[in-house]
């Protein structure tokens, strides 16, 4: 049940792509509420210290977490141990996973007429390693991970201070990407979960053209968003 809940939170619901510290709190809540878990008398832990930390910390990552623990917040020590283990597992396991078809071509084309950056809540070390391994790091000017703040803050600092909103396009596969775009008045092209190859094909064949021609906003974007919002539920069906 824990694996099913974790997968739902991180991949198949509207919390897809959220910061891992928000994800673990959501997953624990869902486990605690699940009738099968309750029937087995499982004791699902709670972490009030983590709940408080995510409310006040603007850069949710291992660097700030380590500083918080070092400053005396011992109740976050188990969270730090878990997060360190996640980073180690990702570094050990995630190799040889190429991008979806047409990602390379789309980035190469976009780079010719736009300033491209990575906006993510993944740790920067993992992002830089994976983008370099796949030979796509040279297409972007900045790789912004969780250490640099929220996705919305990334866009604000890198784009909205330098470009008009209609000249900023956020490409993403998570509701958090759409929220970041909306908060900054930017355009949004969704990569639909479980339809990634079709989405990248559409972006490569028509989405970039609409963006560069100034015809992205309006009916075209709304159709994309309507399809995207139907892909992910808010709550599980168990």
UniProtKB/TrEMBL annotation:
Q: Pfam families in the record, alphabetically?
A: HAD_2
CDD domains attached here? HAD_like (cd01427)
Name-wise, this protein is Haloacid dehalogenase-like hydrolase
